[in-house]
Amino acid sequence: MRRTASRTAGALLASALLVPLMAGCGGEASAGDDGTVTVTVGYQSRTINTVTAGTLLRSLGYFEDELRARGERDGVTYEVKWQDYATGAPITAQMTAGKIDIGSMGDFPLLINAARGKQLNRPTKLVSVTGYNLRGGLNTVVTGTDSDLGSLKDLRGKKVSTSVGSAADGTLVRALQQAGLDPEKDIRKLNQQPAVGASALQAGSADALSQFVAWPGLLAFQGRAKALYDGAELNLPTFHGVTVVEDFAKKRPAVLEDFLRAQGRATEYLHAHPVAASESVAKATGLPAEVVHLYNGPQGIATFDTTVKPALVAALEKDVPVLRSAKLIGDVDVGSFVDEQYVKRVYGSAYAKARAAGPPAARGGEVWLMGKDTTSAFATPAEVLRYAAGHRGEVRAAYVPDAGTGTLWFADRAVWVSDGPELRPYVTGAAARADAAAHPGARVVPYATALELARAS
Q: What pLDDT, in 10s, does the model give residues 338-351?
């Protein structure tokens, strides 16, 4: 790398702290002259695995409903102010400046949030989870569609765009290390915002892009990138969660519980109305609904559950050394950062069972036809192909799970392996080639061929 990790880290944290404070935003549930209590929520509309604490929750109005009912009981008027950001860093800056009460962000930014809160004497707490993937499939490394890079080892000497301090950066670091590359010396890391990195990839000034949801899926859907590395190959959980300023939680615990209750209702809505939820988030963010559904649908890459699962806390513990080695944080006491008491009270006696429950059983894929407000689920990827082949011109999106990691991907962007009567999809070409090499007679085939083979079977 051309710059040291410490200089990059310092620049990131400095930029976060220099974010202009927004005039009129609340912070610490401030009360106005008229007695109105303002609660300020920071969220990332396009980081769509936080939607149950952000975009979707805002559109449904559930938090406002909860506070309206509380206000009627207590004789207090509550107002919610929503602040939208591209990443978690400015949310942390606003929280530590006393301008945001509740925020949502990914796991690596959550640790930076904990570290900055402690450093600036405005401690924060992790109080619930939004979307997670137990294998790490929410982060992906992509290259240009015409790139001849075939595996992570091919990144030696190449320029790779990522957002330093993000979970996607953590995936990149760990994946390179597993591939035998030194993340500090063997690549040129470009510290860029996701949109800037996507443009750099398109322009050829970056050879690869490591990013979090929804950027990899968006670029693949648009035909602007192909997957080089599926983050689920790490088999390490990644997630997004809700953090709160500790002073706010202590001062207004009932309001925080109202937020978590509203988040739970938004989660139930997402599960009960997945297509409507995808369309709603798409409308609010400008993202294609097909991309939102890839991550947030019933078979999507993310699982939504507000409980703070032991596996996710353990993952945070493993994330600390990665951020510490990049000089982004010092030591973080994860145990003291995690505070389940509020979400436990919202759940009641059902919490322990919900916390212990795993993600839904893996299924075989989904097809979304044009003009339909529901999708069709299938037992196997081959069935997805046969259905898609029989509805040519009608398919809005077809999704299939990676045969190795289970990561959902667009069927027409997947890399297919034909092995006798079997058709196996993969997110990356490297995984498909490895499968074909391990099975005599198997071959990698394009999507069009896979469709014809499935229809003929």
A: 999 999 999 999 99
